[in-house]
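Entry type: protein chain
Record version: 2
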Amino acid sequence: MRTSPMPCPPPYTENTDTVALPAELAAMPQWSEFSAAAQSASIQTNALRVINVAGIALDISGQVTSPRLVNATAQLLQARHLDQARSTLLQGGISNLTEDRPAWHTALRAPAPAEDIAFERERMNAFVRLADSERRWRNIIHIGIGGSDWGVRLSVNAFGYAGAWRQVHFVANIDGHAMQGCLAGLDPHDTLVVLASKSFTTAETLQNGQRALEWLLASGVKNPHSQIVAITAKPQLAKQWGIPDSNIFRLWDWVGGRFSLWSAVNLTTALAISVDIVAGMQAGAAAMDSHFNTAPIAENAPVQMAVSGVINRSLLGYGSLNIAPYDFRLANLVPYIQQLEMESLGKSVNLAGDPVGVPTGPAVWGMPGTDAQHTFFQWLHQGSDGAPVDFIVCQDPDHTWTNHHQSLLANCLAQREALLKGKSYDSALHENLQAGMALPQAQWLAKHRMHAGGRPSNLLVLSRLSPYTLGALLALYEHKVFVQALIWGINPFDQWGVEYGKVLATDILQAISGQKVPNQAHDASTAHWIELFSSSQQRRSSGACSDND
């Protein structure tokens, strides 16, 4: 394993003494004008607004607009120093201010990356080529959680949905049932375990990894550590765990977990499908990076999505965002974007530590269409709150059943049009009368069949689902989140709320396992359940716990 230094971002020289923090949003005249312009704007159903980039057509016709809003948006982004912030991000400056480091995930997918990034790419590719040539590892157990899990699930399922000669089994949850179910029926002598953990201290990943190691040992594998791969920014900890240098692939400290798909974390995808899939995704993401960096505001897909997102959340009062991929292969896109957006934008104070003052970070949820239509679209159409929807569909499928795909496309367009147009009382009444209903019944039922419409949406049409277009799509959402955070004045690259829960879990685990934790005060409910669970575990350990306990 080469020991040359890992790539470093270029020195960040601007504001070397103090970091200029963004002004409070409510105090900015540009925000006031933007707010007024957005609230007076409307969806122009007779105007088509489409941005084409990297095999994706983004139709933003379903978002509010007006000439005044276009101008106010430009003024707000200028006041928020978009050009400078974007340059800092893409050139490896300090974008993650609360942790004083870059967020330089774009460097991982650059066409001509830094030497050590290129070196790690080639190491990963060589590992896959050797495994392929030897026809090894019929099964792969991918153990990671959050950013080390969702992106790999997405890419494997997107391009291996019809099956591959290597089977991938994912384990993220600390629940022992997940690991037990994963190991059942596998041949330990032909199984590779991939541990993906940036810190190599992630409790869930290491505990599940330990179970996998014990399984290999119990099965008589002579050198079990040779069947374990680690992807981490702490290679020394992986070595202490017993993993050989040749099986350790490096991350960098400036790669956030939810952006780590662009690194060797995607080794599992390369093994399951091919290294070409990973390379294609990186190329598509790099194309979106270039577009984000150079396209003017009015034609910049991530910027336009971000602006609409801010309007819908902060000014129009929508508390959530629905993701509706009309493609079975993109089922895991929903939790991927959910983590990206909610971990990045789930903040309520700005970089100065003051309250943002407006709602930020919508809840993100969804499932693939057409399943979604039979699950929650009723709420989207007629619920009192509703939510903006990102409809995602591929123009051309990779199967030959034309009627299936035509039905899928028709459903996607119909649901979006229904959200935009709604159905008036008069229209519903006319339909009822045409169906032969008596007037009183027709009038009564029309009130139940009407819905207001005017609910915002985006339509993202991929030419087809390829590694290139999927990579571009993921980068589109990354940059969208970055611009939303810039407008709100928050840091999208930390997650202190998650960290706090981890600290509490460590202390509670000690208490449940019977260890004394001095001076640890809990609320009454937590203390009650710690005591009950601790007693239960002690009885189970002593063999005194029956099935009825």
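Comment: The first strand starts at residue 42 and ends at 43.
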